[in-house]
């Protein structure tokens, strides 16, 4: 994508944001159903979960506000809509389905927020923005899967709400490498900084 | 992206949506500043504007509700935020700047909605959702630029609001071909149908 | 409030809206905890529940889309905020508390939407707007409690989203008569029509 | 409303919020059209404007973030909806109408945010929440008119977003005394603290 990169640079994209003074961590959809290629998994998602274990430990040590998201639809499908029309298999993600449980290595601790959502973005139709406002958060670090789906959608909304937005590079994964990389490119150009765990720790 | 496509198919993505009974057209950011590679333009944007001229004529003939978006910031930058931090050049897009004027070939007709926005999505911080609800719209056809930026963000929000979402293939453009194609792939898998002008006309 | 009424009339408030072609019913917070004056009940709430039984039967016969709301906070209070700071007793409204169960006479039928919310409005941080859009609803009939709290907040948001908004007069109740009447006055002037069950049936 | 007050107290309403560490001021709709009883004015609105002059001077001295709202509809009415259906006279509030200009004694200073809105709440369809997030605001002080309309709607949304919400008692006005007082009662019970200018200054 050399020529692509050229025009972005020439037009002044990819400005540096940096960490603010009050970060929070949101972990998007690291659910059992996204660890298995027979359901919604594949690619580098397992590696991203391993990276997130470390980031979560760091965030807890720093007492950052921490939120986890789950995709959950009503058992009778009464809250299904555009997303499930496009991806009908999502309808299996009901409250008690094993597929919608957060992976054990990232089990939420008491006091951490668990958001149920029906769409890609962790902000859409949820209490996330008010929860961040209540904590005077200025920086949202985003981990989760998939990079090209719910992470990307969450990052756009985070930027639109004017939070400094950091994509945790070691902590986002996708079922396929092409969309993973293409979306990292887009997010870096327009909405977020990309940082490794090491860079996040150094800058916090 | 053969292997990428394989896993999406296997997991049941890219379900067909189809046109509903009450479509609307939103034309995203076809502004003078996006026609010039020295500002935010380049790639296939001019071709997409030409395609949109035809689609707009069709939509008017069908009396679809039609909305146009502009990116507009306050002269003093008081409403700038996350997006302008990442892309500082956007701050030049003020109300009277030549860069923020809709291109002449797509000049809004009386009664068509003109949305001013500060972020990528045409829904974020605007009156779009209420305007669609007032017209009982069930299908949103999206044209505009860039495919990898404001079109993608608008399409995600449209899907989240449960509108049948159609990306008008002849009518979306980007400054660079790689992100254009990568985002068409993502949108087709998760949020929208892709249709040519001919397919839109046939199905309306 | 004679003189109050005079200035509203003179300034052109309280325009008539009327029922549209595609109504939905939302029943706000008719929960066990709101039937008991020892918790959040009192006033005319029981009478409003009785009125809502009739309206619900009518809406089901007409196959209107029907949504019910519950106020539900996390067991550990992780999603509490501004509302619970002002009314700390609300924190007891957790998923399995008897207080947050919908009253038996209004038990949701399969396929009816059940919204969990943390704030006054049924729209805030919920999937309501997308659920209405998916059904091309143009009219929202609002029942529930309290008139001066969650009903009022829901009605404002419904009007802002451009739904024709009808307050079901026989079906809204409050713990206290003064706020009940004052809020009916405000809603009639600015956001909604007030209709009895009989008027709703006649106009549907 | 003695008996009304009794049940609210018994049920634990009207908890004290207090000022946080990072307040902002929003001044709602103090427009020329709301100063004249022949349009939308009357009651104690002029007194509230006088009170707001003092509060605005204080907020500027403290360098609080300051936002002003205007109600503005498109000249061709393309963005009119539920609110204008109920109050048709609002349609006269267009960008260049003398009625929609902020009163001269409260003229925004450079860098203060000016929000154009089409509905009651200053949050609905505007960039307000992101602007507050960008400034890590935890407390929103609300002045403006009318108490029973746009102030009340803004206060509900502010509380829902978890901002500590303060109604500036000397700075809110209404065309009629009954709704003014009834809405102060509701807001105090459920969403906000009521403070005089003196109390705001003492607690800041």
In short:
Four copies of one chain form a homotetramer. Chain A has helices at 2-11, 45-61, 82-86, 128-134, 147-160, 177-190, 197-202, and strands at 23-28, 66-71, 113-117, 139-145, 164-173, 193-195.
Based on the structure, what is the oligomeric state of the protein chains?
Answer: homotetramer
For this structure, the CATH topology of chain A is Rossmann fold
User: What structural class results from the helix and strand content of chain A?
Assistant: alpha/beta
Residues in helix, % of chain A: 25-40%
**Largest protein interface, residues of each chain:** A-B, 57 and 57 residues
- Classified by CATH, the class of chain A is Alpha Beta
**Count of discrete structural domains of chain A:** 1
Between the first and last Cα atoms of chain A, what is the distance in angstroms? 32 Å
Indicate the overall shape of chain A: globular
- Give me the number of helical elements of chain A: 7
**Unreliable stretches of chain A:** none
Cross-sheet strand order for the largest sheet of chain A: 3-2-1-4-5-6
The CATH architecture of chain A would be: 3-Layer(aba) Sandwich
Largest sheet of chain A: 6 strands, parallel
What is the CATH superfamily classification of chain A? Isochorismatase-like
């Amino acid at each position: 994508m050399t020529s692509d990169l050229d025009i972005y640079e020439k037009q002044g994209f990819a400005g540096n944001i940096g960490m603010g003074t009050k970060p929070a961590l949101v972990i998007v959809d690291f659910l059992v159903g996204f660890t298995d290629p027979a359901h919604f998994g594949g690619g580098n998602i397992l590696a991203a979960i391993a990276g997130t274990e470390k980031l979560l430990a760091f965030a807890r040590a720093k007492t950052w506000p921490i939120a986890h998201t789950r995709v959950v639809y009503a058992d009778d499908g009464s809250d299904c809509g555009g997303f499930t029309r496009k991806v009908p298999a999502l309808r299996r993600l009901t409250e008690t389905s094993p597929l919608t449980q957060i992976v054990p290595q990232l089990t939420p601790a008491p006091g951490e927020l668990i958001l149920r959502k029906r769409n890609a973005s962790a902000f859409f139709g949820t209490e996330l923005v008010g929860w961040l406002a209540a904590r005077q958060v200025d920086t949202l670090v985003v981990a989760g899967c998939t990079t090209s789906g719910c992470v990307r959608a969450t990052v756009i909304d985070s930027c639109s709400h004017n939070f400094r937005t950091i994509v945790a590079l070691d902590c986002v994964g996708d079922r396929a490498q092409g969309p993973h990389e293409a979306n990292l490119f887009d997010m870096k150009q327009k909405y977020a900084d990309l940082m490794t765990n090491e860079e996040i720790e150094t800058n916090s």
